[in-house]
Specification:
This protein has about 160 residues and is α+β, with helices and mostly antiparallel strands. The protein contains five helices and eleven strands, in the order αββαββαββαββββαβ. The protein has a five-stranded mixed beta sheet. A four-stranded antiparallel beta sheet has the order 3-4-8-9, with no helix packed on it. A hairpin with a 6-residue loop joins strand 1 and strand 2. The radius of gyration is 21 Å and the shape is globular. About 5% of the residues have low confidence.
Length: about 160
C-alpha cells in the first residue's frame, strides 16, 4: 500500500511537471479590457493592451465628473481609433459600464474631437476600483464647451463594452 501511494505521488508529480512545462511554452493570453461589438452583437473585437499599443494613446487635461480634483491628466486611445480598429461602421456608439449604465455618444463627438478611453489618470493605471478599466474623457480643460451636463453623462467610467450602431 505504501508502494502504491509512492507510485501515485510520483505519477502526480510527473503530470504536474508536464503541465507546468506546457504552460511555460504557451504565450500568455492578453487580458481583455473591454469589448467593441457590432450593432447586432454578433461580432466582437476585444480591446487589450496590445491593441492600445498599436493604435496609440493621447494625453490631455480633463475635468472628470463625480470627482473632487479640478482636473486630471488622462491618457488612453482615441475612441475613433478603437472604433476604426474594430472594423465596425456606424454613426454613433453606445457605451456600457460594468454597473449597467449606458450612454449613446454621437459620432460627431468622437470623429471631430479627441475623445479618449482613458486608461490612466495622473500617470496611474485605472483599475475597476478607481473607475477603470477605461473612462470616456473629453478635452474639457482646453475646450470648456465639454463641461456641460450632456458631456458629463457621456463620460462613462468602468467601460465594459462599446456597441457601434
Amino acid at each position: 500500500s505504501s508502494d502504491l501511494i509512492s507510485r501515485r505521488l510520483s505519477e502526480v508529480a510527473f503530470l504536474c511537471l508536464i503541465v507546468l512545462g506546457v504552460a511555460g511554452l504557451r504565450p500568455a493570453l492578453a487580458e481583455t479590457l473591454f469589448v467593441v461589438l457590432s450593432a447586432d452583437g454578433q461580432k466582437q473585437f476585444a480591446v487589450t493592451d496590445d491593441v492600445i499599443e498599436k493604435v496609440g494613446t493621447t494625453s490631455f487635461k480633463a475635468v472628470l465628473p463625480s470627482t473632487d480634483e479640478p482636473n486630471y491628466t488622462v491618457r488612453g486611445p482615441l475612441l475613433r481609433d478603437i472604433v476604426a480598429a474594430s472594423g465596425f461602421k456606424g454613426s454613433f456608439v453606445t457605451v456600457r459600464a460594468l454597473d449597467g449604465y449606458e450612454m449613446d455618444i454621437p459620432g460627431d463627438d468622437y470623429m471631430k474631437n479627441d475623445v479618449v478611453l482613458a486608461i490612466e489618470t495622473n500617470g496611474k493605471r485605472l483599475t475597476r476600483r478607481d473607475r477603470g478599466p477605461a473612462w470616456i474623457a473629453y478635452p474639457s480643460v482646453e475646450f470648456p464647451e465639454f463641461l456641460g451636463d450632456s458631456y458629463a453623462a457621456r463620460s462613462v467610467w468602468q467601460v465594459k463594452d462599446i456597441i457601434v450602431k
